[in-house]
Amino acid sequence: AQSVTQLGSHVSVSEGALVLLRCNYSSSVPPYLFWYVQYPNQGLQLLLKYTSAATLVKGINGFEAEFKKSETSFHLTKPSAHMSDAAEYFCAVSDRAAGNKLTFGGGTRVLVKP
Amino acid sequence: NAGVTQTPKFQVLKTGQSMTLQCAQDMNHNSMYWYRQDPGMGLRLIYYSASEGTTDKGEVPNGYNVSRLNKREFSLRLESAAPSQTSVYFCASVPTGDRKLYGYTFGSGTRLTVV
């Protein structure tokens, strides 16, 4: 079975500082990996995805993530945090062998301090 | 705008009552999903429908039933609501084949409280 672990349920960063959100996955097949963002009282919006092409993936709003097979990781980064980045972020892995089900991590809530 | 539409947005039920959460997508997606979101637990899959006419259990199916009415619509039913079903429910859809690489599209959610 696939699983996703996000280290840190809450992260606090200063505006302009690096944002780093950690995600480790477990999958028996080469994975498809996703990062989603959820703003308060809204649904989930796709930030970026890894689907076995380039290992460094660029997404919306200046975010990027690097797939490292040897570390089974897919960490999300943004060089300079903005107040609008305050949200909850979810890492997910797709089970391509069974209906493309997404398995989510527990989420990381980001607080941006002025 | 194209997307996934969920109704209702908010609902309060008494223990033992029943209700159906509705979901419709207009993107011609084959696969549809129901998730529940609880604090600290991310989203957990309740049921999914890989294609019209099929449904399968996910991680937390107990207390729920689903119907894939047609390609557009996928409903979730609570037959006898319990306080443990207080949650935010999300419907999602995704195409199949190469287009699945575009990722899921999520609805805006239904916030359900069972008292």
Structure at a glance:
Chain A is mainly beta and 114 residues long. Chain A contains no helices and 11 strands.
Could you state the oligomeric state of the chains shown? heterodimer
Average pLDDT reading of chain B: 92
Counting DSSP H or I runs of 4 or more residues, the number of helices of chain B is: 0
The total strand number of chain B stands at 11
Structure notes:
The complex is a heterodimer of chains A (114) and B (115). Chain A is an all-beta fold and 114 residues long. Chain A contains no helices and 11 strands. The radius of gyration of chain A is 14 Å and the shape is globular. The relative contact order of chain A is 0.33. Chain B has strands spanning 4-7, 10-13, 19-25, 31-37, 43-49, 56-57, 64-68, 74-78, 87-94, 105-106, 110-114. In chain B, the strands form 2 sheets. In chain B, strands 2, 4, 5, 6, 9, 10 and 11 form a 7-stranded mixed sheet that branches. Chain B has a 4-stranded antiparallel sheet with strand order 1-3-8-7, with no helix packed on it. In chain B, a hairpin with a 5-residue loop joins strand 4 (31-37) and strand 5. At the A-B interface, strand 4, strand 5 and strand 10 of A face strand 4, strand 5 and strand 9 of B.
Compile the SSE list and pairings:
The complex is a heterodimer of chains A (114) and B (115).
Chain A: E1 3-7, E2 10-14, E3 19-26, E4 32-38, E5 44-50, E6 56-58, E7 64-68, E8 73-78, E9 87-95, E10 101-104, E11 108-113
Parallel strand pairs in A: 2-11
Antiparallel strand pairs in A: 1-3, 3-8, 4-5, 4-9, 6-7, 7-8, 9-10, 9-11
Chain B: E1 4-7, E2 10-13, E3 19-25, E4 31-37, E5 43-49, E6 56-57, E7 64-68, E8 74-78, E9 87-94, E10 105-106, E11 110-114
Parallel strand pairs in B: 2-11
Antiparallel strand pairs in B: 1-3, 3-8, 4-5, 4-9, 5-6, 7-8, 9-10, 9-11
